[in-house]
Amino acid sequence: MRGASKRSLVIALILISTYMVAEVIGGILSGSLALLADAGHMLTDAAAIVMALVAIWIGQKEASVDRTFGYHRTEILAALANTFALWAIAGWIVFEAYHRVFRESVDVVGLPVLIVGIGGFLINLAAAWVLHRSSGESLNVEGAFQHVIADLLGSVGVIVSAILIMAFEWYIADPILSVVIALLIVYNTRRLILSIVNVLLEGAPEHVDVYRLCSELEEMEGVTLIHDVHVWTITSGNEAFTAHILLDPGYKGDIDELGLKMKGLLHNEYKIGHVTIQLEKTLEGCTEDHHVGHLLALSR
Fold first, then answer.
1. Superfamily of domain 2-200
2. Which residues contact 35 (CB under 8 A, 6 or more apart)?
3. The pLDDT of residue 232 is above 90
4. Residues 58-72, mean pLDDT to the nearest whole number
5. Using CB atoms within 10 A as the burial measure, which of 50, 85, 181, 237 is most buried?
6. Where are the domains of the chain?
7. Architecture of the domain whose range is 210-299
8. Which residues contact 263 (CB under 8 A, 6 or more apart)?
9. What is the mean pLDDT of residues 21-35?
């Protein structure tokens, strides 16, 4: 998965970096805020992709005594940094738009804005298509993907503002559409930031129904109660599960076989890769917080 993610990120980086220079030149020559904002955002796109690539590289370092889970969380931190960068860009665009409307009057040359905007749209569309294939598997790549999507929206805004300027001389369309783009950037990152926070707070993965999982384990022959349950995400596509499972003292079956059956359920049905199960025949000496709220939920 990470090999495919790296290839997608490298291809997108080449596409974006190549066209970024053209947007900067076009923005300076035409005086378009929307085009300069889009060019600035392309620069952050490139930085975001580089950050994602570095995070993947660091995340692949082997685990150590001090980092028993390795450095996988680096990818989540990179996704968080990319989200904050997007918000900062949106704030800068709004600030510049305010100055354009209320503090200064700038004429914008529509034709070069339109030409460069169309080129930017095509480049961002290609980069988004490349990253989309890996974004669903990694929050790190998703963060870079959201940068490109925001830039794609920026290119649309540039094209629309250029058409309005050329057709009606509505120069105010440039800052207004820039603000609309900024708001769309913030709106589009809402799901990403919620997923990142869920990982950092050790929340259960979205695809895992913990109540249902506990119920299926307790329905296995010989199981009396599952408690001290923890399900969390280490990094995208790498989930972990730990639990204590109380067995019927009279259970005569093969305990090792029962444990393998439980792990098979977790691996195959819930796609959880890191599983630690402690099988017990008594609660004596078990001092952990038992987390048996699933029993109350199921009894309602």
1. Cation efflux protein transmembrane domain (1.20.1510.10)
2. 23, 26, 27, 113, 116, 117, 158
3. yes
4. 78
5. 181
6. 2-200, 210-299
7. 2-Layer Sandwich (3.30)
8. 275, 277
9. 68
Per-residue model confidence as pLDDT tens digits over 193-224 = 888 899 999 999 988 999 999 999 999 999 98
Average pLDDT over residues 87-111: 76
Locus of tokens 């955002």: 41
